[in-house]
Specification:
Shape: globular
Oligomer: single chain
Distance between the termini: 26 Å
Number of helices: 0
Radius of gyration: 11 Å
Order of helices and strands: EEEEEEE
Largest sheet: 4 strands, antiparallel
Helix content: under 10%
Strand content: 35-45%
Strand order of the largest sheet: 4-3-1-6
Structural class: mainly beta
Number of strands: 7
């Protein structure tokens, strides 16, 4: 359904990485779907425990991308 991008551009660092603290509303990644770039924002505050997909990987609707606790 889309492509996961961990950073805003190929030369930039990732929006977040494992161990980072995030706040509600913070951008976590970009998902490209049908040539549109959509920012995915956190719905919770916490710490990124695990990133479950790799940069540039194809993802499906409803797939878990990160674990935040």
């Amino acid at each position: 359904v889309g492509t996961f991008y961990a950073s805003p551009s190929p030369t930039a660092g990732p929006f977040v990485k494992e161990g980072d603290s995030v706040t509600e509303g913070q951008t976590l990644c970009i998902v490209e779907a049908m040539k549109l770039m959509n920012e995915v924002k956190s719905t919770v505050s916490g710490t990124v425990k695990k990133v479950l997909v790799k940069d540039g990987e194809a993802i499906k609707k409803g797939q878990t991308l990160m674990i935040i606790k």
